[in-house]
Amino acid sequence: MAVKVRGGRTLTLATVGALAFSLLAVGGVATASSAGEVVACVHKKSRYARIVNTTTKCRTTEIRMVIGGGTATTTINSGERGATGPQGPKGDAGPQGPQGLPGKNGKDGLPGKDGVNGKDGLPGKDGLPGKDGLPGKDGLPGKNGRNGEDGKDGRPGRDGKDGKDGKDGGTYTTYTKSGSIGGHGSGTASCNQGDLATGGGFTVGKNVTVASSMPGGPSSWTVSVAKGGYGHSGADLKGADAKETDTQETLGQNGGGGGTVYVVCLKKS
User: What is the chain's Cα-based Rg?
Assistant: First the structure.
């Protein structure tokens, strides 16, 4: 006997007795009808067959089959699909699976945005004093500074001690003596032997320039002249109040190139 079930599968059984034995082994115990038919409930997905009584209703997940005797072929028609049953209880967690292989390195992510500036930290403790550095090279000389302002007058100094009494001095008088100046040279006027020269002067003509007028020694006065210039006179007659005056010789008054040199002398009376 061949039995078609949903999904196109066909079960072929040789005899009703063999089918009954097979179904008893799979699903349980059933009572055959008077016509020799067997009623079975077959699961729609697993094809598990369950033998039931003729009055038993199949479940919504099963198909009812009536298997008759002989070699006829029985076609099983599925009924309307029943409503979905309630969800069963959650099963126990299975054992942990083996660790998977390491994954490949992912691509670098985009740079993140700059974070907000943090608050200033507390001041750190003072560090230890550093070692003295090597002496630096001498710097370049600086420019001369500006002249400072004049300082204030200092305080008057203390009075000095009285000096010792000097020796009694003698009486001195002054006098003048004169000498000739050459046209392109010099002239000297000398005091008497033992007297000192205290000053001097000169008189020259036109076209004569006085180059120098100075003491020629302790008791003389010397004047040096050069050609060129205008006639003039000069004097440093510190003994102008001299009581005794020798005869003076004046040269160059007629426009010549010479002149006269004078010396003021001091003598002890």
Answer: 79
Residue in the structure block whose two tokens are 């004093």: 129
Nearest to 16 by CA among 32, 4, 29, 27: 32
256 contacts: CB under 8 Å, gap ≥ 6: 183, 205
State the pLDDT confidence band at 233, using cuts at 50, 70 and 90.
low
Contact at 8 Å (CB) between 69 and 35? yes
CA-nearest of 200, 201, 193, 191 to 246 is 191
Domain ranges of the chain: 2-75, 172-268
Instruction: Assign 30 a pLDDT band (cuts: 50, 70, 90).
Output: very low
How distant, in Å, are the alpha carbons of 15, 21, 31, 169, 204 from that of 52?
A: 19, 14, 7, 180, 178
CB 223 within 8 Å of CB 181 = yes
CB 177 within 8 A of CB 189: yes
What is the average per-residue pLDDT within 24-35? 43
Distance separating alpha carbons of residues 23 and 37, to the nearest angstrom: 13
**Tell me, what's the pLDDT at 148?**
82
- Please spell the DSSP secondary structure of 215-250, one letter per residue: EEETTEEEEEEEE-S---EEEE-TTTT-SEEPPP--
Instruction: State the Cα–Cα distance between residues 223 and 227, nearest whole angstrom.
Output: 14
Tens-digit pLDDT profile for residues 178-216: 999 875 688 999 999 989 999 999 998 777 788 899 998
